[in-house]
Design brief:
- By secondary structure, this protein is α/β, with parallel strands linked by helices.
- The protein folds into 2 domains: 218 residues, P-loop containing nucleotide triphosphate hydrolases (Rossmann fold, 3-Layer(aba) Sandwich), CATH 3.40.50.300; 66 residues, Alpha-Beta Plaits (2-Layer Sandwich).
- It contains 11 helices and 16 strands.
- The strands form 4 sheets. It has a 6-stranded mixed sheet with strand order 6-7-8-3-9-10, with helices on both faces. The protein has a 4-stranded antiparallel sheet with strand order 2-1-4-5.
- Helix 3 packs across helix 4 and helix 3 packs parallel to helix 5.
- It starts with a strand and ends in an 8-residue tail after the last helix.
């Protein structure tokens, strides 16, 4: 079966700046792939390339069976796109926004009322159809924007940090809608900077400096990418402990997580000596505890090391 989204050596330059660097990516029908990376890593540029909004400098990509460089209009007819900022019109009502986007996507007139009603129900806006969008809370705006993006029943959906600035409960409800769409066969690429949201994806693609540096399920990334044993250490002061530990040969990396340190060691046996080592620096430390790495641990480690692009 052909993938719903396929990129091969996809690159985009702006003058001397390389925004996307030889990216390879394949996404199957009905799959949810999370796009993770630091600010400026190339996530939004990649999504715009795949949407046919930018022309690649090199490489190629196909979305829903259409080449993004040669057939950008056909690509845009077969995708839904939701940007970081709400694309709704604040001075229009819920119903007026839906009708406008229905016309923009050329939804057949015979279908528009039914699809508008479905979008309103999905967003939980029954009874608020005539409310101005500017009066809605962020979570409602977000779900309405998603409803507008799928009025034309696209097989592929691109979501560029759609939950940024939205409260946790509304974010969770939004992800319920994403999984519902995927269960119906919609392919979804979603960029996010929330590590807990990445756990909801079938696979995660991590991009840094325009290059794809890791891809796999959340479990696969946690198992294979750290290259050491992870321990949690309660100590004080944290800053001084961080500096001291980063000088220890057995320590691959150390980072502050809340009021504790996460310490990545080459060998688990080295953990036993850490409290005594820190005590010599005047730092009080409790016993280290081995922990299962989180996606945030994986993310911090991957973006801090030199890396080469990987093939998807």
């Amino acid at each position: 079966m052909n993938p719903a989204v396929r990129a091969e050596g996809l690159s985009k330059r702006f003058g001397r700046f390389v925004a996307v660097d030889r990216l390879d990516l394949s996404i199957s029908k009905g799959e949810i792939v999370g796009f993770i990376g630091p600010n400026g890593a190339g996530k939004s540029t990649t999504i715009r390339l795949l949407c046919g909004l930018l022309k690649p400098t090199a490489g190629r990509a196909c979305v829903a069976g259409f080449d993004v460089a040669r057939e950008p209009d056909a690509v845009r007819e077969h995708i839904g796109y939701m940007s970081q900022k709400f694309s709704l019109y604040p001075d229009l009502t819920v119903r007026e926004n839906l009708r406008f986007f229905g016309g923009l996507y050329r939804v057949p007139r015979r279908d528009i009322e039914v699809r508008m009603a479905q979008a309103i129900a999905m967003a939980g806006l029954q009874g608020r159809e005539d409310a101005l969008v500017q009066t809605l809370a962020g979570g409602w705006k977000q779900r309405l924007a998603l409803g507008c993006a799928i009025l034309h029943r696209p097989p592929v959906l691109f979501l560029d940090e759609p939950t940024s600035g939205v409260e946790p409960e509304a974010r969770r409800h939004f992800w319920d809608l994403i999984h519902q769409l995927a269960s119906e066969g919609v392919t979804i690429l979603v960029s996010t900077h929330y590590m807990d949201e990445a756990e909801y994806c079938n696979r995660i693609a991590l991009i840094d400096a325009g290059r794809l540096v890791a891809i796999g399920s959340p479990g696969e990334l946690r198992r294979r990418e750290l290259g050491g044993a992870l321990f949690e250490l309660e100590c004080s002061p944290l800053g001084a402990a961080l500096v001291a530990l980063r000088q220890v040969p057995e320590v691959i990396d150390a980072a502050i997580f809340g009021d504790r340190l996460h310490v990545l060691l080459r060998q688990p046996a080295a953990a036993e000596g850490l409290p005594a080592l820190l005590a010599r620096h005047g730092i009080v430390a409790g016993p280290p505890h081995g922990i299962t790495p989180s996606l945030e641990d994986v993310f911090v480690q991957l973006v801090s090391r030199p890396h080469a692009a990987v093939r998807a």
